[in-house]
Amino acid sequence: MGRTMPAVGPATEGIHPVLPPIQQRMVTDDERILIARSKAGDLEAFAELVRTHQRMIYSLAYRMSGSAAAAEDLAQETFILAHTKLAAFRGDSKCSSWLYRIAINLCLRWRKSEQRRGLADGEWALEQAPSDSGENTGARVQEALARLSPKLRAAVILTAYDGLTHAEAASVLGCAEKTLSGRLFSARRQLAEILRVSNA
Predict the structure, then answer these.
(1) Residues 24 and 43 in one domain
(2) What is the pLDDT of residue 97?
(3) Residues 102, 57 within the same domain
(4) pLDDT band at residue 138, thresholds of 50, 70 and 90?
(5) Between 196 and 136, whose confidence is greater?
């Protein structure tokens, strides 16, 4: 009684948002027990779930928003929303996939809100960009990625940066795998054109 939801921000301070592929984050029996306890109202069990997945969710939110402050807010909102929806989680998919869907939807709504207010995209920090083609390559890739539509950007981030398969990314985004493949094709074509123009 009297316990509060765990904060997401402090655990991510000083951590560059680079994660192993999602395939390495399999649901364990311990996690199933934590989910069952969380559904029963055990906040300590839910706090452990937050600690397990917060870095993954913060990383996604950071890549989608380009802002550390927004990423912390979106990650916190993801876990708050997940807590309210725990009763509806049937365990048909991995807990990480379920959290990804919640976070992606929040990020997409956040992006639409930002666009409506006319705010510019935040500063991107996708360190995985190739560094052997000149010191400005990373910055150009970041700028190009930020110019994609949110849905195309999400498709690229989930597959190229977070290591999801096409089937997993499609499940997270709530679309058919064929649709996901089409978004990736469009994203690659647009990125190539943006980079071609920037190099001209």
Answers:
(1) yes
(2) 86
(3) yes
(4) low
(5) 196
| Token output for 51 | 């600690």
The closest of 148, 149, 129 to 139, measured between CA atoms, is: 129
d(CA 164, CA 86): 23
What are the structure tokens assigned to 113, written together? 């809100």
Domain, as residue range, for 108: 18-123
How far is the C-alpha of 192 from the C-alpha of 190, rounded, in Å? 5
Question: How far apart are the C-alpha atoms of 185 and 149, rounded to whole Å?
Answer: 13
Report field, pTM of the whole predicted structure over 0.85: no
- Where does a domain end: 58, 92, 123? 123
Please give the torsion angle defined by the CA atoms of residues 22, 99, 97 and 71, in that order, rounded to the nearest 10 degrees.
Answer: -40
Total domain count, the chain: 2
Token output for 74: 């979106």
Task: Using alpha carbons only, give the angle 102, 10, 103 rounded to the nearest 5 degrees.
Answer: 10
Inside any domain, residue 162: yes
Do 150 and 93 share a structural domain?
Answer: no
Tens-place pLDDT, residues 24-66 = 445 567 778 888 888 888 889 889 989 989 999 999 998 888 8
